[in-house]
């Protein structure tokens, strides 16, 4: 019966996400990815601009199923979101040995704001999360079984993940500790694992070089504001970043932050334990990077850290269950209240002057609800936004540029009114 329960659980999550998914192509990079599908061409570009793994798998998916570009990108995103949760489920079950822990941890992550939001739009981050969840799963298999095969697989997956998103280099310090653990503690030969990871990391450069792309863009975009701006904020700037990062963490995991923080402090006290050090570094480095990264949508870069954070949450809840079973039960059941938490947050913030001003400033995109609700049903579309002339033409406005590219592809197939509704 447990297999049936699992199928029903993940089937429910897929339908749940599909129901709340966007109705019109949303703002941000979404239309750019739709245009990739519309162009329907495989790429050999392994720089940060090529989205090599995402683009090629998306085009393959679209071609196999014969879908239009918008439903193709929608379902591609939904499928990899649910696959991420499937892998996370089995990683949690492997580590904590209890099915209920796996269900609870998966549901906590599934309803977290950032992951839920990214599932409802068109982006690369849930696709990338699948590879990181797979990396974590094979890492846990190695730590549990001490079998070099799983260290090799975790290194292979982390290497492949670099073809999905360059931010995954922030997991290298944790991976290096993992390799050290294998050699010092378990007497496992880590050289094949190190070799396969380096081969994939170097492969990005090699493919870019032989295909004529700028190799300086393999691990960097060339936008100095994103890099230097991240390091030149001063004390007040960094303090603000930390407050914002903590705010994001609470908004994603609200009451579940407490047991996780308790476990993190316990692990810090016993950081000499190699496994504790691995989990801490694997969480703190990507979390720290996302905290200071100087981009407007930095909240999405926390996802890699959040995948590790869920394991802290469940470990903390298990501790609570042992000492305070009634409190554990209440906290666990509260996961079903997460959507209510988002609604209450909106209602409270919409009553204060700052929230009302923000709602007016962003009204054309959907107002405050666009930023506080993870679901995208009944959303304002980027195409209707620009086709209705709500913003003057700007040569530097990438969303406007993407609209014109989409129009160029679709004018022969659809009327302007039909495009406006997409």
From TrEMBL:
The keyword GTP-binding does not apply. Keywords: Membrane, Transmembrane, Transmembrane helix. Pfam families: TMEM260-like. The chain crosses the membrane at residues 7-22, 75-93, 100-116, 122-140, 147-164, 170-186, 193-210, 242-265, 277-293, 299-318, 330-349. This is Dolichyl-phosphate-mannose-protein mannosyltransferase. It comes from Epilithonimonas lactis. The lineage of its organism: Bacteria, Pseudomonadati, Bacteroidota, Flavobacteriia, Flavobacteriales.
